[in-house]
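Reopening this one. Same input as before:
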Amino acid sequence: MSDISYHRPASLAEAARLAISDPDARILAGGQSVLPSMRLGLLAPSALIDLAAIGELQGIRSDGRTLTIGAMTTHAAVAASKEVQGKIPALAQLAFGIGDAQVRNRGTIGGSIANSDPAADYPAAVLALNATVRTSVRSMPADSFFTGLFSTALQPGELIGAIDFPLPVKAAYAKFRQPASRFALVGVFVAQAGNAVRVAVTGAGPCAFRATALETALARSFTPQACDGVRIDPATLSSDIHGSAEYRAHLIPVLARRAVQQILG
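Same output, byte for byte:
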C-alpha cells in the first residue's frame, strides 16, 4: 500500500483549500463509505482530509421556520435530537432506522448525501422536504443536488457545510429494508408543506428521485387510497438480486400509502 497523507483541518475553508490542492485526496466524514472502499481496493486516495475537528460542521438548530443540521452531525445525534423529534419527527425516525448502532454513531448526514448511494435514506428526506444544501461556496436546492449513481452537483473541492430543512406541515418515511444491509430496497418519504405535496424515493433508481405521479395524486386527495391507482414505470428503475425493477415499481405506491397513513394517524 502506498503512503497516504492525513490532514485534520480546523475549518471548512481550510478543508476546502486542501481538497482543491489535491484532487486525489478524499474527504473523511464518518468513514462509512471511504474506509470500506479502501479496504476492498476500490479507492486509493493520496490523502485523507478528516473533518472531525471542524466545530462549525456540527450541531442542530432551528429558527422556527427552518431546521439546520451541520454536515458532520451523526445519524445517532439526529435521531436523539429533541429539536428534530419536535420539528420533523419523520427525520428523526429515518435517522434511527439507518444501519445499526455502530453505523449511526459514526455516519454523518453530510457524508451520506455527498456519497449519493442509491439506497441511502437521507437523500429521500432532503428531496421530499425541499431542503437546501449549503456548501463551502454556494447553496443548492435539493432538486438539483442528486445527479446520478454516487454522483451529485458538488464540484471538485466543494464541501457540504450544512443542510437547511424547511419545516413541513407533516411528513413520514416508509422503508422496505434489505434485511442484511438494512439499506432501503425501497424507501418513500412524503411531506406536506402548505398545499404542496412532495414524494421522494430512494433504493429504486440510480439515485433518489421525486415521484411526481404520486405528488399529483396526493395533491388532489391526500388519502392513502389516492396512491392505489398510481403506476410507476419500471423502465428507469434498478433491478438486482434483491428485487426486480417491476417489484420496486410495485413497492413505491405501497410505501407511499403507508407513509400517508402514518401522517393521517
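So the earlier flakiness isn't reproducible anymore. For the record, Residues 171 and 191 are 4 Å apart (CA to CA).
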